[in-house]
Structures are given as C-alpha cells and as structure tokens.
Specification:
Rhopdopsin 7-helix transmembrane proteins, Beta-Lactamase, 4 domains, 5-stranded antiparallel beta sheet, 5-stranded mixed beta sheet, 19 helices, 14 strands, 56% helix, histidine kinase, HATPase_C_sf, transmembrane helix, phosphoprotein
Length: 606
C-alpha cells in the first residue's frame, strides 16, 4: 500500500488535474460561505465528491505500476457514483422543488448506491467481475496508462450512473418547458453543461477517447462544476435572496426608481414606466421631465428626508412618495450612493377615506335631521297634550260635576295614557338634549332617603293599579348627597316604574336605602322574570327592551334606563343590577355621599 503513495514527479496532466482540484476547492469554499439557494446541500455533496474523484484521478496519474493505478481507480468510485447522483438531486431540488416522496430514496441513492459500487470495485481481486483479466498497462501519449477490460459489474455500475445522468437531463428539459421565458436562457445553459460529462464519458466508452491517456469524465465533470459554481456566484437566477429582491423590484405594483448620488436614473421598474410613460428619461440621465419627483430628489441630495409629503397624483392614481438611502461601504461626509424612491399607491385608501367622510357627513346630517324632527314633533305634541291632560284632570276631579261611574273610569284611563304619553315626550326631549350636550344638571345638598321616600309615594298609584305591593325600608339617618333632585327623582321614577310593571299582579317590590363605604346605595328588588346574562347593552340602550316584539306585555319607549345611567354618570354615581332568571332582579343606584356627610359618617364609625 505504501508503494501506491510513492508519486512520480508531476508532469503536465498532473498539474492540470491539481489546478482543477484547486479550482473546485475554491468554488466549494465560496458556495459554503455565502450562497443560499434551492438544492445547496446536494450541490455541496457533488462538489465534495468531485474533489475526491479528482484527487483519486491525480493519484492514479502520479503512481507507478498497474496494481497501484487500479487501486486508485477503484478508490475513485465513491466520487464517480456520487457526483452524478448528487447533481441529479440538486437539479431536482432547484428546478422542480424538493418532493417529500423522495425522502427515503434520497439517502439510499446518496449513500447506499456509492457504497455498494465501491465495495464491488474494491473486491475485484476476489471475483474479477469488475475489471477482468484483460486489463493491462500500456504506453499512451508518452505516459503509462491502464487499459481496462470491463466486466459485468462495471457495466451494472455504469448503468446505475447513467440512469442518474439521464434523469438529470430529463429534469432540466422538463424545467425548461415549465419555466417562464426569463429563466429559459439560464436553464438551457444548465442543460448544455449537464450534457458535457455525458458526451465525454460516451466518447471514452464508445470510441476510446482519452485526455493524456486518461478517462476524460472526471475532467469534464470538474469543468462543469467549476463553470456552474461561477454561474452561482455571478448569476442572479440562482441566489434565492437575489431572486426575491428582483421579484420585489420587477413585480411590484408600486413604481420604484433608483437614482445615484448625482440624481441620475439608474434603474426603473415596469410599474414606474407604466405610470410615467414617455416622461421617464433614459438610464444614466437626470430626472428631467418629472416635475413631481425633481423637488423630492433635490431635498434628498441636500441631506434631507421625505416626511409627510403631499401625495403625487398621476394618471388618476395617488402615490405616497418614500425614499431609502443606499450607503457606501465606507461611511464619510458623502456616504450616499443613491436612493431608492418608491411611490406607494394610496388610491384605494384615499377613495375609502372619501367614502368614509361622505358616510360621516351623511350620518351627521341624518342625526341632525332626526334631532330636529324629534324636537319639532315633541314640542308640537307637548302643547295640545298639556291641554288634554288638564281637561282630563278637571273631569276626573269632578270640577264640572260628578260623572257617572262608567264615564269616570274612561276619563281615568285617558288621563293615565296622557300621562304615559307625556313621559314619552319628556324622554325624547331629554335624549335630544343629551345628544346635543345641552341637558343641564344642577347640584344641591339633598337627603337621598327623603327623595326615595317621595319617589315611592309617587309610584304608589301605579303599583296599586298593577296589583303590586310597594314597600320601603326607610333609613335610620339622613343620607346627604349633592345632586339635582328633579333628575334623581326621574331616575327613581324610571326604576320603580320598571320594577312594578315587570313584577306582575300580587308581587312585591321592596325598596331600601343603605350607606356603604362613603356611598349611598338604593336597592329596588322586584319579583319579575329576571334578566338573562349579557343583556346590559340592551337594558341600558336607546329604544331597546328585552322583549322587543310587537306583542310584548310591558310597554315603554326603551329610553328610561338609558337616560337614568347618563344622569347618574353626571353625578359620579352608577346604576346596575343583579338578576336570577325566574326569581327577579335587584337594581342598585349608587351615589357618593356629600363630603360633610361622609366625614360625619366616619366620625360616627370611630
């Protein structure tokens, strides 16, 4: 074995092989360091296999004796098999994409195949079926070369290798047929260099063609890999990062222009050409003829930036101009190489904004029309309704004389409904004032216990008419708050009215006033059907009721609790409820105690 490491002085064939070995090594290092592209692992495997193949070929050229030359020829077979195999998988990954169905076949082809062929070659001394006895050392082209007498295992191995070489050709042809025209030139070049080692090997096998008395296949494969490595380094079609950048530039729906530090046009994408048309100057010329861009470029060249620029309008479209600086590798006083000016299409956004403005104006006009309508209708109804209510009160109080019982009941019904209508009109007017911000709330010190008591007295007639028992647990001491007695009375009236209406005949409504942590808490507990969870927006909404059907049992405008919540918000208080379906609801009203009352409460507690 040591004898097979003794090398002859290098001659021209060895020097050429060594140069190719160095070239492939440099390409391998370059690809390993900087490039990312589909099929990169398989391509690196083919480069490493090519390095081994060239090394074994150089050793075969450099050693003496038939046995040593055959040994290095046998040791070359891992590279011989692996180079076309890995090349095929590279082409498959790059041109057609990595298919999950090849997951199991890939390691078998890349590792098991080369290993099996190598074992057959190295065991030739036992079976003689790879290189037969006719193999001999002869002189050719001024140097000793081995003429191999190929056995059946050699042809099996060659068939295996050719299967991958033919597959690589088929992959590239299929890729050419499927690829866009912009890629076909590159893929055609890829097909040509894929055919080079096939042609070299066929010339050797069929016609005995050699280079320096040696099989030309490794040299042709090495040439292919070096050429293709150069294409990888220099061709944008192989680098996935460059492909993505080109796509962003050429396929962008926004115009993009690249200018140098002197303001000359360096590149322009197709969308910019569509937008500006013939006004675009030739490459290398200043941006003359584009008045929309000239002041922006002047500001950039002066060291400024593009911030909140007015939209550029061209061809019925609107664009928001933006610029990114291209820096020199070494920063200095003039570090800008140029700028990328992109015009972001905001036509759709402007149209949407205009539509929203129009919708807002229409909504404001509709709200104003509604408010004016409610105001007019409410005021027009209030005057005759006041006269009707006054007349009914006179009749009901026998001012004009006693009325028959049947007539008196009719008058009472009319008076009750006129009062209900008056409440509805007052609610509508209050809602209008709330929306306009004109509803006034005064402040004075009042005893909330007395106010609740007055409210219960006022609601007693309604409760009695509905068959509801209304009770009040009066507080033991005054509970002073600062507020508007009329508006707070309105709140209590709405809550008590709802409690009586929803409780039904024979039920009880219990009212209590409590003092809790510097606040007054009024509780109104009814025996109604209860309120389902998540109904707060409906309970306190405008013109909304839990039962909004036309056959609902309890009437009303659906404004009372909405107005009540607004009034309490103005007082720094709140309204809410706790409810259990089928058992009833307890509404609570909370207001802060007046400051002096709160201090008195703390003193009593102490």
């Amino acid at each position: 074995m040591n004898r097979c490491l003794d090398l002859l002085p290098p001659d021209l064939p060895v020097a050429i092989t060594a140069a190719m070995l160095v070239g492939v090594s440099l390409v391998t290092l370059r690809i390993w360091q900087i490039h990312r592209f589909p099929g990169r692992p398989a391509f690196l495997i083919s480069l490493c296999a090519m390095l081994w193949w060239l090394l074994a070929s150089m050793m075969e050229l450099s050693v003496q004796g038939q046995g040593c030359k055959m040994l290095w020829a046998q040791l070359a077979w891992p590279g011989i098999v692996l180079v076309p195999t890995a090349w095929t998988f590279f082409l498959l990954d790059y041109a057609l994409g990595r298919h999950p169905g090849w997951r199991l076949l890939r390691p078998l082809a890349l590792y098991a195949g080369p290993l099996a062929v190598t074992l057959m070659a190295l065991s030739n001394g036992w079976h003689g079926a790879f290189y037969r006895a006719g193999t001999q050392l002869v002189g050719r082209d001024g140097r000793a070369s081995v003429i191999y007498d190929h056995g059946p295992l050699f042809f099996v191995s060659a068939f295996y290798v050719y299967a991958f070489m033919l597959a690589s050709i088929g992959i590239v042809v299929l890729a050419i047929l499927r690829a866009p025209w912009s890629f076909r030139g590159f893929l055609t070049a890829l097909l040509v260099i894929t055919l080079v080692p096939v042609a070299g090997n066929l010339a050797y096998v069929l016609f005995g063609f050699t280079i320096f008395g040696f099989d030309p296949t490794p040299f042709s494969f090495a040439f292919v890999l070096v050429v293709f490595g150069w294409m990888l380094v220099n061709n944008r079609l192989m680098d996935i990062n460059l492909i993505a950048r080109d796509m962003l530039f050429y396929k962008s729906v926004d115009p993009v222009l690249i200018v140098d530090a002197e303001g000359r046009l360096e590149a322009v994408n197709p969308e910019a050409r569509r937008v500006f048309g013939a006004a675009i100057p030739p490459l290398g010329q200043p941006l003359a003829g584009l008045p929309e861009l000239e002041p922006l470029l002047a500001r950039l060249r002066g060291g400024g930036m593009l911030l909140d620029e007015a939209p550029i309008r061209r061809g019925g479209r609107s664009f928001d101009p933006r610029a990114g600086v291209l820096h020199r590798p070494v920063r200095n006083g003039r570090s800008a190489l140029g700028w990328v000016i992109s015009l972001i299409d905001i036509t759709a956004q402007e149209q949407e904004a205009a539509a929203l403005r129009l919708a807002a104006e229409n909504a404001r006009a509709a709200a104003l029309a509604k408010s004016q309508f409610l105001s007019v209708v409410s005021h027009e109804l209030r005057t005759p309704l006041t006269s009707i209510k006054g007349a009914l009160d006179l009749l009901n109080n026998a001012v004009t004389g006693e009325l028959p019982e049947a007539t008196r009941r009719i008058v009472q019904i009319a008076a009750s409904n006129s009062k209900r209508l008056t409440t509805l009109i007052e609610d509508l007017l209050d809602l209008q004032q709330i929306e306009q911000g004109t509803l006034a709330v005064t402040r004075q010190r009042i005893d909330m216990g007395h106010l609740v008591q007055d409210a219960v007295v006022e609601a007693a007639d309604l409760a009695r008419s509905l068959g509801v028992t209304l009770t009040l647990a009066e507080p033991a001491a005054p509970m002073m708050v600062e507020g508007d007695p009329r508006r707070l009375m309105q709140v209590m009236g709405n809550v008590l009215s709802n409690a009586c209406k929803f409780s039904g005949s024979g039920a009880r409504v219990e009212v209590s006033v409590l003092r809790e942590q510097g606040r007054v808490r009024v509780l109104v507990k009814d025996s109604g059907p209860g309120i389902p969870e998540g109904a707060q927006d409906t309970v306190f909404g405008q013109f909304s009721q839990l039962d909004s059907s036309g056959t609902r049992r309890v009437g009303g405008s659906g404004l009372g609790l909405h107005i009540a919540r607004w009034i309490l918000d103005q007082h720094g208080g709140r309204i809410g409820y706790d409810s259990v379906l089928g058992e009833g609801t307890t509404f609570f009203i909370e207001l802060p105690l007046a400051p002096q009352s709160a201090r008195a409460t703390q003193a009593v507690s102490a």
